[in-house]
Specification:
This protein has 221 residues and is mostly helical. It has one domain (42-216). The protein contains 9 helices and no strands. It has helices at residues 22-26, 29-42, 48-70, 73-98, 103-111, 113-127, 138-150, 156-177, 191-216. The longest helix is centred in the middle third of the chain and has 26 residues, at 73-98. It is globular.
């Protein structure tokens, strides 16, 4: 594998220079600001997993900045891996703390995300080819919505927060999807909106978890 192979997948990039995607790169500051803001909001009584999610949220901003500046294979991994880490940590936390599963059972159920994402991602690609690469994110929005719907009776406020998160992610996926189709009419692209909406969504999701833990009396565990 050529770790330095160039990747040009966004409307804003017209050449291989470091700042070719200026807005795509700088808009990642939203992740850093969101991570610092949430960390401050959490305070001393934050749940450990909430604090960990803040660290990963900050890493998402750094990784995405690297990808939208270096735009090659290794920086693509720096972009994707923190996102995957956030998803897996949150699913584990939801399984353990929303559903009350043991750590082992929560971890086992979390591993099922991989076959689930593969199957549903392929389904979204087949049914909605216009999504392109954004189809890979649709399983996450769907899973958040499923958890939200299933938790309505058990934890109504948490369920409401999850459904809002699913809606925010769906809106951000729309912004990501429109980047190339609208390129001729809007040369700057819509990808920065994906970053801004995602930062808001991830910030919201951490607070949903923290509020749940406070309500359950387990924020400090």
């Amino acid at each position: 594998m050529d770790w330095t192979a160039e990747i040009d997948g966004y409307c804003e990039r017209l050449d291989a220079s470091f700042w070719a995607e200026t807005l795509n790169a700088l808009s990642n500051a939203a992740f850093l600001i969101a991570a610092l803001w949430v960390a401050r909001r959490l305070g001393a009584g934050a749940a450990p997993i909430a604090r960990l999610l803040c660290v990963v949220l900050f890493a998402i901003g750094v990784g995405s900045f690297l990808f939208h500046t270096f735009a090659n294979t290794w920086s693509a991994l720096a972009d994707v891996l923190p996102i995957l880490a956030f998803v897996l940590i949150y699913i584990f936390a939801a399984n353990q703390d929303f559903w009350g599963l043991s750590g082992a059972k929560a971890l086992g159920l979390t591993t099922l995300f991989f076959p689930y994402a593969f199957a549903t991602g392929a389904g979204f690609s087949a049914l909605l080819p216009v999504l392109g690469g954004s189809a890979a994110y649709m399983p996450i929005a769907l899973l958040i919505a499923i958890y939200g719907l299933l938790l309505r009776k058990k934890h109504p406020e948490t369920a409401k927060g999850l459904l809002i998160g699913a809606a925010l992610l769906s809106l951000s996926i729309l912004a990501r999807t429109l980047d190339e189709p609208l390129c001729a009419a809007f040369p700057l692209g819509t990808h920065p909106a994906w970053h801004l909406l995602n930062a808001l969504m991830l910030c919201h999701m951490i607070m949903v978890y923290q509020r749940h833990m406070l309500a359950a009396g387990g924020a400090g565990r």
